[in-house]
Specification:
- Strand 2 (about 10-20) and strand 3 (about 30-45) form a beta hairpin.
- It is elongated, with a radius of gyration of 16 Å.
- It has about 60 residues and is mainly β.
- The chain has strands at about 1-5, 10-20, 30-45, 45-55.
- It has a four-stranded antiparallel beta sheet, with no helix packed on it.
- The two termini are about 25 Å apart.
C-alpha cells in the first residue's frame, strides 16, 4: 500500500509491503513486513528523491 501527501513542491510518500526470502541452505522461508518513507521535491518539472528510509521486521502472527 502506498500513501502520498503533497505539500507544495514537496511530496511525502509511505509504503508498506511484505516479502519472502528463500535461501538455498535453509529449508524455511524468511517472511518480512517492511515500511518505507520517502521525501521528494519537484524541481524543473521533475520529482527527485531528497531522502528515503526503509526498515523491516518479522510479521506479527494473525490474531485469533
Amino acid at each position: 500500500m502506498v500513501k502520498v501527501r503533497l505539500e507544495g513542491p514537496i511530496a511525502l510518500a509511505t509504503e508498506t509491503y511484505r516479502y519472502t526470502i528463500r535461501l538455498k541452505d535453509k529449508p524455511e522461508p524468511i517472511e518480512r513486513q517492511g515500511v518505507a518513507t520517502s521525501v521528494l521535491r519537484k524541481s524543473d518539472g521533475e520529482w527527485r528523491i531528497v531522502s528515503m528510509h526503509s526498515s523491516s521486521r518479522t510479521p506479527k502472527p494473525p490474531k485469533k
